Amino acid sequence: MATNSQQQQQPAEQQQQQPQAQHVNPAALQEPMNQMYTTSQAATGGSTLSVALQNQTTSSTVYAYITGQAMDNNNALFLLSADAKTPYYPTSPSATGSQLAQNCAIELGAPGNTVTATIPHIAGGRIWFSIGSPITFLLNPGPALVEPSVTNPSDPNAKISWSFAEFTFNTDQLYANISYVDFVGIPIALTLTTTSSGTQHVSGMPANGLDTICSGLQAQNASDGQGWNQLIVQNNGQNLRALSPNQGMVMNPSLLANYYDSYVSQVWTKFSSQQMSIDTQAAAGTVSGEVSGSALSFGGSTFAQPSTHDIFTCSTGPFATGSNAETNAIIPRLSAAFNRSTLLVSDTFPAAENLYYQNPITNHYARIVHAANLDGRGYAFPYDDVQPTNGQDQSGEVHAGDPVLFTVTVGGANASTSTPSNDRKEL
Hints:
Oligomer: single chain
Low-confidence stretches: 5-43, 422-427
Order of helices and strands: EEEEEEEEEEEEEEEHEEHHEEEEHHEHEE
Number of helices: 6
């Protein structure tokens, strides 16, 4: 599951870095991550990894940052220094909103250039990029990292073009994905080269991907008048980013407020007279549910009707996780079915990909984002990693236990569905 950014819209004195939940297949909620993959992907045990940061924008002023928790240093807050090799472990400052003591802005140089960084084992990792200006990171006592916010107008990065990819690198594997859960900004692509398990590639968006998405949101608003255009953030008349619905509702709580109400009512009516079947892809196996009274009941798990806010966040109301393992396994699949609007066209879930986003009431942000990515992949809502067993990945992830080189490309100038060459030049 991917978590939404809870610290956004808070002043610097309140913002604190929380361990970032990675976009892991929800079936892994019941099992350690190292059990998710086959033994043919056994980890090599290397304590560091090379990360190639490639500038495929049209700008020579592009910065990269790498942050996370250093797993081999008691999960200490980690930033990579500007030389792309030296770890920086901030000490706890005496005041909120303190400056970093180290320069952590990695300059990528001219278009086409690549800088190769070296990272240790990191949990909750993010690789950030900005164009035109560096990102301002601050420190609170802890130490806690104050990250950029897309919903706080007073954030020092509010008018900067920036984006990130997420990753975890541990003794078992590297896992990484492209994240659009909160917003879409600069195109990012991923390529993972391994010792013996092949090369994996996530294409990302072409250079004009953001403009394509913003045009799609404008068109959807013209079609249904629901305010999808309000998710577009501009600076000086240019598209800066497109917010996801859950972040758009942070900015404007009335936006899309009752959007899913009629769809939810139709779902409840349908399953009042027939059952649905959910493959939890976990220890609970396949469970059957039916509406009884006002709740959708699976025996040991019951769900009230979700609000639009619950559906877009995937984490509130009936979708809040707790101590019941069966409920926790149902939540991702039910949340995904609402976001993809497959509940009226199927009785078994996760549903097939060809059924996604076909209803007029759906997560059009996710639909438009997937369409704008060259291979259709990328996290567009928190449970976008839900898929049928042996189904097509939607989330834009790469993973392997034998990683050799992790290439993260920013800008989309060479975006392709084919795996790019590893040839690169250094600064």
